[in-house]
Amino acid sequence: MSKKHIDECLRENLEAYFRDLRGTEPGGLYDMMLRAMEKPLLDVVMQHAGHNQSRAAEWLGMNRNTLRKKLLEHGLVASDKS
């Protein structure tokens, strides 16, 4: 799968979203899109990285602590706190 294919999928879905709005103006679209794509991105990358956070963080180009925070925010990893 190429980057172009991912871009096309996003574009098609955004176009469908605007069609579904039927002229209603969206609000907070940027944050909505980031939230919508971040959780599945993190989930799939973690699966392919064998749930190794250091490896996944490297693949994503982010700090491991940042990845850990995002995984917690999305409920993709259990908190160490009891």
Which segments are poorly predicted (pLDDT under 50) over 5 or more consecutive residues?
A: none
Any idea of the CATH class? Mainly Alpha
Structurally, the number of domains stands at: 1
CATH architecture: Orthogonal Bundle
Key traits:
single chain, 82 residues, mainly alpha, Arc Repressor Mutant, subunit A, 4 helices
Can you describe this structure in just a few lines?
With about 80 residues, the protein is mostly helical.
Task: Summarize the topology.
Layout: H1 3-21, H2 29-48, H3 53-60, H4 64-73
Helix pairs in contact: 2-3, 3-4
Fold and architecture overview:
The chain is an all-alpha fold. It has one domain (3-73): Homeodomain-like (Arc Repressor Mutant, subunit A). 6% of the residues are buried. It is elongated, with a radius of gyration of 16 Å. It has 4 helices and no strands. Helices cover 70% and strands 0% of the residues.
